[in-house]
Specification:
Blueprint (H helix, E strand, L loop, with lengths): L8 H36 L3 H27 L4 H19 L5 H15 L2 H12 L6 H8 L1 H23 L2 E3 L3 E3 L1 H9 L2 H9 L21 H10 L1 H33 L3 H32 L5 H18 L7 H29 L5 H31 L6 H29 L10 H7 L5
Antiparallel strand pairs: 1-2
Helix pairs in contact: 1-2, 1-4, 1-5, 1-6, 1-7, 1-9, 1-11, 2-4, 2-15, 3-4, 3-5, 3-8, 3-9, 5-15, 6-14, 7-8, 7-12, 11-12, 11-14, 11-15, 11-16, 12-14, 13-14, 13-16, 15-16
Length: 453
């Protein structure tokens, strides 16, 4: 059986498997610093705010700067080769982070990680959309996007194990690099899976492009075309892009600060909290991945035309309520249990808004619109979220003892604002969806809007 173009069904699923692994690696390299904040902070004498800049801002600045130009090339050139080059760049830069001797050099290497990772997401979603029929896209997209949760979980689990392993060797010397401390050893080891990903990508078949609307597949897309489209439908993308980006302020705040929160509020070292948090995210990620298509399909059967978008709003409300309880829980294991639900909600909030966006975006502009989603998600979510929590924590208590309260307040507010934003824009999103035709599923009709220019 073949998918909607020249690649076979087995090739399409191999594509999903390799892209999933590559996306896991990208989040591993992106988020590993969250587990190493405390030793890096002590080694370089940093404040919480400076630490947040290393984790978020340094990555986001170049991720955003390169995102749209790279996505433009993804809409024009061979996406597999583009991803292979990108993975090589960010893997090399992650390794170089392990050689950093001060705040400035680590900041510069993190710029390189962000630049490399900017190519993966829009290129991958574009390839998946071309490899599967519209009515079959939700499951492969859910699987691919679940790698974000798996990658963050792996950064905690593998990072804590590698850091514990590195501590046994203490400080040692390497030629040219000089003294290598445990946190640096951890980064050097974490960089290696990226190069395995490059080898696996070499065997991926590039799917042919389909459904470019009323334009020939070889016609070049004008850079101004994307801006005209956004101008024509501003509130559609305020709800579909800005709303989820605000929610990501809470998600990235949690991912960045939860290891430090366990260290400060419950006395858990990174080796303990990393494994517990990571395993919880794995379980939540698996459950969430299973539930996403089930809940979406149920919403469709009940007559909700914008099922992915509508379920996202409900999930945001539930998430805001969930994180509000954090300051009142004094038992660390109860927090871990509550975090399992937050992890499930996180899968919904990572997958469904992007599925909705893929349905709305014209096929010929899909990678660029996805890149804009990523720019907003990372600039607002990753760029502002961790730093916003750090500033609130410093304002509540200069010694950092109120990090747990700050994380709860900031995250609940972010989820609530995102829910209101998406709810207010929902009528404009609905207006972009075609009327359901007799005998056609809602999912099929939503996906067909991709062909509208």
């Amino acid at each position: 059986m073949k998918s909607q173009n020249s690649i076979s069904s087995s090739s399409a699923w191999y594509l999903i498997g390799v892209l999933w692994f590559t996306y896991v690696v990208s989040f591993l390299d992106r988020m590993i610093l969250t587990l190493l904040i405390e030793p890096i902070k002590a080694d370089f004498g940093l404040t919480d705010f400076q630490s947040s800049l290393l984790v978020g801002f340094s990555f986001v600045l170049f991720y955003v700067s390169f995102g749209l130009p790279v996505a433009y090339f993804a809409d024009q050139t061979n996406r597999k080769r583009l991803i292979m080059i990108a993975v090589t760049i960010w893997g090399t830069m992650t390794a170089l982070c392990g050689t950093a001797k001060n705040f400035t050099s680590l900041l510069l290497f993190r710029f390189g990680v962000g630049a490399g990772e900017s190519a993966l997401h829009p290129s991958a979603l574009s390839m998946i959309s071309d490899a599967f029929e519209p009515e079959r896209r939700t499951l492969p997209m859910s699987i691919f996007l679940s790698a974000a949760t798996a990658g963050v979980a792996l950064s905690y689990i593998l990072g804590s194990l590698l850091y514990g392993f590195a501590q046994k060797f203490g400080v040692y010397q390497l030629p040219i690099i000089g003294d290598v401390k445990p946190w640096q050893t951890t980064l050097l080891l974490v960089a290696t899976p990226a190069f395995l990903s490059v080898a696996l990508l070499a065997f991926v078949k590039e799917p042919s492009r389909v459904n470019r609307g009323d334009c020939d597949a070889k016609e070049q897309i004008r850079p101004s075309e994307i801006f005209k489209h956004l101008k024509d439908y501003p509130l559609v993308y305020v709800g579909s892009i800005l709303g989820p980006a605000i929610a990501n302020m809470a998600m990235y705040s949690f991912m960045t600060w939860i290891p430090s929160m366990f260290a400060r509020s419950y006395g858990w070292p990174p080796e303990k909290s990393g494994v517990a948090i990571g395993l919880t995210m794995v379980i939540g990620g698996i459950v969430g991945t299973i539930l996403v298509p089930i809940v979406k399909k149920y919403a469709e059967k009940t007559g909700v035309p914008d099922s992915a978008y509508a379920v996202s709003i409900i999930t945001l409300i539930m998430s805001a309520v969930s994180v509000s309880s954090l300051p009142f829980i004094d038992n660390a294991w109860i927090v871990i249990g509550a975090f399992a639900f937050t992890s499930i909600f996180g899968v919904f909030l990572n997958v469904l808004p992007q599925v909705s966006l893929q349905h709305i975006a014209p096929d010929r502009l899909r990678a660029q619109i996805t890149a804009i989603w990523l720019i907003a998600s990372n600039l607002i979510g990753f760029g502002l979220g961790p730093s916003g929590t750090a500033l609130l924590s410093d304002a509540l208590a200069s010694d950092g003892s109120q990090l747990r309260t700050a994380l709860s307040i900031f995250s609940a507010a972010s989820f609530a604002v995102a829910a209101v934003t998406m709810y207010l824009c929902r009528p404009y999103v609905l207006a972009r969806l075609p009327q359901e035709k007799p005998g056609t599923s809602t999912t099929q009709e939503i996906d067909k809007v991709s062909a509208v220019g």
